User: What shape does this take?
Amino acid sequence: MHFSIISIFPSRVQAGMQEGVISRAVSEKLIELNIVNLRDFTFDRHRTTDDRPFGGGEGMVMTPEPLSLAVKDARMSGVERERVILLSPQGRVFNQQVAEELRREEHLILVCGRYEGVDERFREKYVDEELSIGDFILTGGELPALMIIDAVTRLIPGVLGCSDSALRDTFSRKLLKHPHYTRPRVFEGSEVPEVLFSGDHRKIEEHRFLESVKRTMERRPDLLRRASFSVSEKKLLARHGIDPDTGRETGQ
Ligand code: 4FV
Assistant: This one.
């Protein structure tokens, strides 16, 4: 899978990819990164990429020409599934489902906004989709771009050590992950649930499933309403006094 990232701060983008899963995926050629310096598509002495907004108002707007030239240059011939994505608060909110959708593309061209945003005519003509990482304002689209590359890359088979762990992801099942424990067995007087030492994998899976449902009920009941359970999971929940449809305790 190919990622092109268009930014006026390419070194910040580079810095965000130095270690960990992403840089290993690059070295193992599971992904290819093309970090584009937007200023390379300017022709004035100051390599300007922004200007004052028509109609007045505070802040600056990114000019359309350098952005359009950078996108045209980043496009890959012969690649069908290519998508130009502008990171902005006006976009569709990014989540695990969007990550799984983007995973099916061959080439993502990520445009990192700065200042007040980009000229609308560039957006209309060159942007396939706007994505937001949440309802808050950042100083730039670089961190959102890095987050999307991280979330999508880890879904590529072979990127994560154990390939199926992404399948058991939080949100893929629309349930929050169960608590995790590791050594030491006693930490500051706190023990670990005994069942985890039983060696009975079905009992351990049941325990973890119930912990996931309880945690989701407490913290994200909105997710539980969208979760689907198998017949055996519904029986297990009922045996533990949990109504699978509402996620509420039945008190039985
Ligand atoms: C943002 C977000 C975000 C807005 C103005 C960059 C900033 C500046 N991008 N999700 N939230 N972008 O706040 O994606 O252009």
